[in-house]
Description:
By secondary structure, this protein is α+β, with helices and mostly antiparallel strands. About 20% of the residues lie in helices and about 30% in strands. The strands form 9 sheets. Strands 9-16-17-15-13 form a 5-stranded mixed sheet, covered by helices on one side. Strands 28, 29, 30, 31 and 32 form a 5-stranded antiparallel sheet that branches. A 4-stranded antiparallel sheet has the order 1-2-3-4, sandwiched between helices. Strand 26 and strand 27 form a beta hairpin. The protein is globular, with a radius of gyration of 27 Å.
Amino acid sequence: MKTKILLVVIFTMTIFFQVNAQESQRESLALKYIKENAREFQINQDHSFKLSFVRKGLAGETLRFQQMLNDVPVFGGEIVVNFNKKGEVAYTSSSYNKEIEIINTDPKISKEKAILIADEKLNYNGLVTFQEVKLYVYALDGETKLVYRTITHAEDLIGSWEVLVDANSSDVLSVKDIAIYCGHECKENHNHQIDNKVVKKKKKAFLSVEKNNTLAFTTGTAMVFLSDPLSAVGVSYGGQYIDNNDATNASLDAARALVNLPEIENNSGVYKLKSSYVEIKDFEAPNKGLFTQNTSSFLFNRNQDGFEAANVFYHLDNNMRYINEELGVICRPFLNSGVLWFDPSGLSGSDNSYYLGGSNSLAFGEGCVDDGEDGDVIWHELGHGLHDWLTGGNLSRINGLSEGSGDYWAQSNSRALNQWTPADAAYHYMFNWDGHNQCWGGRTTNYSATYPGGLTGAVNTTEGSIHQDGQIWATTLMKIWDVLGRTKTDIAFLEGLALTNSSTNQNQAAIAVRQAAINMNYSCADVKVMTEKFTNVGYTMPAIPLTINCPEEQTVNADGAGNYVLPSFANLTNAINSNCDATVTQSPAVGSTVGVGSHTITMTANGSVNCNFILNVETALDAEDFIKRSQVVLYPNPASSTITIKGNFVNLEKIVIYNILGQEVMDGVVSGTETSLSISTLSDGVYTLRFVDSNESLKFVKK
């Protein structure tokens, strides 16, 4: 009898409802759209759809409808409908399976029986750390079957093992590892043999519910590699900069950096690598513990196992904060109340790392170079998680899409550190420390192959070349990154992935990313850059229907006679088409005089597509207000960490800071004659500081 300690209760999944509520006021509209386009989707009238996932993001609201047969979900079948901020259907994607036949969906065996069959087939001996079973209608080798799909994680099972059990005959139909690996050349096919050796079981409940004795978050510090030791000093693998069986030396120690940890757990004086976003766990062999200690400073050398623990924690926590707080893209795991679990020493010590979709967790191997020491590996594996969470568990590996997405996410983070110059070969390297050495060759983001001719033929997860093909996708995204910058490209990439499904290929993903940018009102010039970069690599990009987006509500002051002469609002209006050549006009016309009150301004592109916004005209400023507001000064500009606002503010006045996409990123108040404000948490870029009471604005640059 195997001992089982479960991360998640068998048969159920705890969904993170706060992020992904499964209801929407647009559900009926989306279903109506699907029905009206049933012929285009090639829908069989015997199939139905059930709302399974709703995401409200920066690119609008996206609804996912699970394909159903007699109230049983069809594995992998769904239709995705995205509404833009105007409430219009802007994008759809489909993995609907029209080949599903009508079968009896009443199982002859129970879920418990299916678990026993799967356990016997896997023949593991260690602690179970995750297990679930669900009933599906499944297309297997051209035949429609009713199956139980079990997923099992255990200490002595490297990977995430899926077993398909026929729900009628009890036959085992398939056994495979579905973990998503980093992609070392020696393990690209991931067809591992099940290791049946018995691990030395620790019977303590290291995954059990913890007692909250005076539990709170506090700040801490850690020594980490900001990316990896080679990038820190600009050298290649060799000399003093080798793994040497995890031994340290003065050069490797000097490559570390002291960083702040915004949150770590303090449980009655015991400090743990746990935050609102990330938590260390020990769910795989080798069992090295949780590295709790009586100090908030996690200051390890790389020859200590605690170094990998602190390094992985820092990078995951920092990145999750960047995504959710700085970018404003809500993206967290479904499980564990939205907290990402990771094991810095897993995979039984082998040379690889992976994302475990069943448990929404990450594990890092230790072979050759410890994977937890290379930021590229950490960010790449997190990239798989982001892809999974954004799509409601329906990430695609077609054409190596998820591999390329992980590579892009790693390169975007690495490139932002400015540790290499474009003249360096390592500027484009993926896995600078873990790869490009005797361990394995690594990958690159200046891959020369084009789409689709440059594909190796990988069309599913069983072919190792999906890692190679993913380089086309990552390389193209980095070319966009080079023009639009990190923030814009990262946001469009994440929001675009949220529109995809489990059968999306690279070309379809490119269209989705561009559509997300259009939904978010990126400038036509930005959208055109995306179109050109995608087209240059071989993706087929459809023409863009003419759209127009008006500015937000505007407030101005009348002159002394109570009049306001309308200027041109064309520069505040974004008309988007393929060539960015739309002509914008307005009504009332430029030069018209309006009085105090609210007025509707209509902006029209090419005489056919229009939008409206409200212009509020207020009474003229008195002399005191005019003098006070006209003497406001913001400095330094550009600024790196702090800005100072100087003026004569008699009363408190609220301020709000917006990024280039119009998203609120900070707020505060000013008073007196001088107020300083920290902007160190902001990403580099152009920002607008708005005085709420007076409705005046100033621009500044963070760099």
